[in-house]
Specification:
The complex is a heterodimer of chains A (about 80) and B (about 260).
Chain A lengths: L8 H18 L3 H16 L10 E7 L2 E7 L12
Antiparallel strand pairs in A: 1-2
Chain B lengths: L3 E6 L7 H14 L4 E5 L7 H4 L10 H5 L5 H4 L1 E2 L6 E4 L12 H11 L5 E5 L6 H8 L3 E6 L3 H16 L6 E7 L1 H5 L6 H8 L2 E7 L2 H9 L10 H13 L14 H9 L4
Parallel strand pairs in B: 1-5, 1-6, 2-4, 2-5, 6-7, 7-8
Antiparallel strand pairs in B: 3-4
Helix pairs in contact in B: 1-11, 5-6
Classes of the chains: A alpha+beta (about 80), B alpha/beta (about 260).
């Protein structure tokens, strides 16, 4: 490993802990979170057309509370933009 | 006088709970407070050896609960501070011998004549931990700047919140400032950001902690020890004083002087 380009071990520790804690606190495994996303998208698709490839759904920390944050672009919206 | 009950816990074992209890209890006694510390680790007692009182044990907490002695008989007076007492855990008995209501009763009996009751929780999140937090007015969570210790501390903080014990305060123990500076150890800011609780003290890694435990003399009694200073500061904060956090960057000795000269500090 190149000593100069090596990523600091403290930042690896922090990034790994951020992920682990989110799953520990919500008691959701990554697989369950994936199922949740898929079911959510399916429900939304019954009403509006969405772009499944551009969807971003994840758990975020806010102090000691967690939130489920979803960014779901609707298909065809770009049509209405000027230019 | 009615005592404040403070429980020290961590989730993970070996992060320094017992050391923290022995040092905080001793520092509070040195400040003139009446202190009783209790070892909550039934079957694996250690607070007695850390405090150097292992040869004085006659009765333990289970003897009190099962009526074989009076509470006062199980309270071992410290060698140096006459207002500091230890109630040892039982070493051989079943850990189900103690219940949360037993802990409440013992604390209520101690409260009128005591300023602080400090309870050393066992590692884990099971019966012994539940007993240790049952009577707590305030909980201190001890962790080290390492992934496993921080993860377990987060579990404990979650349980304390679910039990409506209020938000605990964090003691970040065994911080190595040189490793943090080199980005090879989680910084206090990282740990606080991850856990989302308030900080009550940072204790630097310090050889004198091991030397103190070898001798059965908590490091707060060593005026030169950095860890001792950190624990004395935490004890002051527990008493409601506003004590600024230590500058952990400052390093004494030849190596510190060389680092200063070469601009590495």
């Amino acid at each position: 490993m190149n000593w100069f380009t090596r990523k600091s071990s403290a930042s690896s520790a922090k990034e790994r802990l951020q992920l682990v804690l989110v799953h520990d606190r919500t008691d959701l495994t990554p697989a369950q979170l994936e199922d949740l996303k898929n079911e959510l998208l399916e429900a939304i698709s019954h009403y509006i057309e969405i772009d499944p490839d551009a969807v971003q759904i994840g758990l975020e920390r806010d102090g000691r509370s967690q939130r489920l944050v979803a960014d779901i672009p609707l298909r065809g919206v770009s049509r209405h933009r000027p230019g | 006088m009615t005592a404040q009950v403070i429980t020290v816990t961590s989730g993970k074992g070996g992060v320094g709970k017992t050391t923290a209890v022995a040092n905080l209890a001793t520092a509070l006694a040195a400040d003139g407070r009446k202190v009783v510390c209790m070892d909550g680790d039934i079957g694996l007692r250690n607070l007695d050896v850390i405090m150097g009182l292992e040869n004085r044990i006659v009765y333990d907490i289970v003897d009190v609960i099962e009526g074989r002695c009076k509470l006062k008989q199980a309270m071992i007076r410290d060698k140096h501070y006459p207002d500091l007492y230890l109630i040892p855990a039982a070493q051989t008995r079943d850990k189900n011998a103690v219940s949360p209501s037993d802990m409440m009763r013992i604390c209520n009996d101690l409260k009128p004549d005591t300023d602080f009751i400090i309870i050393d929780s066992p590692a884990g999140i099971e019966r012994g931990f539940r007993n240790a937090i049952a009577a707590a007015d305030r909980v201190l969570v001890v962790t080290n700047p390492e992934v496993s210790a921080v993860r377990d501390a987060d579990r404990v903080v979650g349980i304390l919140e679910a039990e409506e014990k209020g938000s605990p305060s964090l003691i970040l123990n065994r911080l190595n400032p040189a490793l943090v500076k080199n980005n090879d150890m989680l910084s206090p800011e990282d740990v606080l950001d991850l856990l989302g609780i308030q900080l009550i003290g940072i204790v630097p890694e310090d050889e004198s902690v091991i030397i103190g435990s070898n001798r059965g003399a908590p490091v707060v009694t060593d005026a030169k020890s950095r860890a001792g200073q950190a624990f004395r500061n935490i004890a002051r904060r527990i008493q409601g004083h506003n004590v600024p956090f230590m500058d952990l960057e400052q390093q004494g000795g030849l190596w510190g002087a060389i680092q200063k000269l070469t601009g590495r500090k």
